[in-house]
Amino acid sequence: MSELSGDKTHSGNARSEADRERSAAVEMQGYDLIGDIHGCASTLKLLLEKLGYRCIDGVYQHPLQRQVVFLGDIVDRGPRIREAVQIVYSMVKAGQAKIVMGNHEYNLLCYMTRAEYGEHPFLRERTPRHYRILKETLEQYENYPRELDALLAWIMEMPLYLEFDHFRVVHACWAEQLIEQLEDSYGVQHLTADMLQRSARHGTFEWTLLDRLLRGTHLRLPNNEEMISRDGFRRRFFRTKFWARQPQFYADVVFQPDPLPSHIARRALSVQDHDDLLYYGEEEKPLFIGHYWREGRPEPITDNIACLDYSAVKFGKLVAYRMDNESVLSADKFVWVDVHQEFRAQVAG
Fold first, then answer.
1. Which pLDDT belongs to residue 23?
2. Largest CA distance in the chain
3. How far apart are CA 309 and CA 292, in angstroms?
4. Cα–Cα distance between 276 and 291 in angstroms, integer?
5. In terms of DSSP bridges, do strands 97-99 and 161-163 run parallel, antiparallel, or are they unpaired?
6. How far is residue 226's CA from residue 220's CA, in Å, rounded to a whole number?
7. HSE value, Cβ hemisphere, 13 Å, CA-based, for 272
8. Half-sphere exposure in the Cβ direction for 316 (13 Å, CA)
9. Is the pLDDT of residue 169 over 80?
C-alpha cells in the first residue's frame, strides 16, 4: 500500500472540476456511495468486498469500472483510523474513488492549524470537549507526525461537495445559494488557506458555508435549555431536517438520535426558526448525505435523499448505496455490513 503523501490531487476552478466530474461519469459504470467510516477499517474492507471490490496492488477496485464516493468522516472515534484513511486515500489517488470532506476532517484540520488572528492560538480552541472528539485520531497518529501532516494537507484538497449529472453529494446539507456564492467568490470546491482562517470566525460567509455543508441546519433550544446527548455532550442546539415541507412544530423538523423533550417538541416554530431552515425540494437531483447517526434498516429519507450514516462506529451499520442512473432512490439499492453481527462473529470465531 502506497504511503500517504501531501501531493496535490486536484486544482483549478469549481466549473472545471464539475466538467471533470461529468467526464468521469461517462467512463464509470456506476457509483457506490459509502457513509461515515470513523476508523472502522475492518468493516470498510468487508463492505468493499461485499460490493465486489478487490484489493489489487494495495488499491481496492471494481472489475466493472464502478467508483466509490466517500461521504466524509473517515477519522475519529474508531480503532483503526490510520488504516481507514490509507484505504480511502489510496483509492482516491488511483482514481477508484472520490471523497467529500466531513465535519470531523474539518475539526481536525482546525484543531491543528494555527490562527493568524484572534484570541486563541489555533483555529479550533483546544478545550477538553474538543480534545475528547479528536482523541482517538490524535493518539493513533501520535507517533506518525509526518503522516498526520500529509493527512492535513489532503484534507485541504477534499471537495466540500460533488455534483454529478444525475446526483449530488455533500456531508450534511446541500445549500445551493452558499455553494453558488463559494464558486463566485473563490472559484474552487475545496478550502483555501484564507477560507480556512475565515471559516473559524463566527458570522463570516466562510463560517456559515462550512457550518451548513458539514454540520447541516440546526435550531437553538428555546429558553437557553440544554440536552445531554447519548454521547454525553451538553447541547443547546438540535439537528434539523432540510426537506420538511411546511413544518409547523419543532417535532416536524428534528432529525437526530436524541428525541426532543415533549414540551419542546410541541412548540411552534417561530418566524426566525423558519428563516434558519432550508428546503431541498422533491424536484431536485438525488442527494446523498452522511453525518446524522441513523438507526434501523437503511432506506431513503425521501424519494431523492438518502443518508448513509448508520452509526458504524457505535456497532450499527456501515452503509453503501449502489447508484446507477435512477432518479428515484430505492431501498433495494442499499448494501451494508452490520458491525454488531461482525463483532459477535469475530468473538465466536
1. 41
2. 57
3. 6
4. 19
5. unpaired
6. 9
7. 5
8. 22
9. yes
The 10s digit of each residue's pLDDT in 46-58 is: 999 999 999 999 9
**How far, CA to CA in Å, does 176 sit from each of 16, 161, 172, 241, 301?**
18, 11, 13, 16, 19
Q: Do residues 309 and 292 lie in contact, with contact meaning Cβ atoms separated by under 8 Å?
A: yes
Tell whether the model's pLDDT for residue 337 goes beyond 70: yes
As a whole number, the mean pLDDT across the chain is 92
- Where along the chain do its domains lie? 25-174+285-348, 218-277
Pairing label, strands 67-70, 97-99: parallel
Distance in Å from the first CA to the final CA of the chain:
28
d(CA 144, CA 156): 19
Q: Residue 256 carries which side chain, given as an amino acid letter?
A: Q
Q: Could you say which architecture CATH assigns to the domain 25-174+285-348?
A: 4-Layer Sandwich (3.60)
More confident residue, 201 or 341: 201
Cell numbers placing 226? 440544554
Q: How far apart, in whole angstroms, are the C-alpha atoms of residue 240 and residue 109? A: 25
Instruction: Give, in order, the Cα–Cα distances in Å from 55 to each of 29, 63, 91, 319, 321.
Output: 19, 11, 10, 19, 20
For 130-153, give the secondary structure using H, E and C. HHHHHHHHHHHCCCCHHHHHHHHH
Instruction: Enumerate residues 6+ apart whose C-beta is below 8 A from 205.
Output: 178, 181, 185, 198
pTM score > 0.85 for this model? yes
- Rounded to a whole number of angstroms, the CA Rg of the chain reads 20
pLDDT digits (tens, 9 = 90+) for 55-76: 999 999 999 999 999 999 999 9
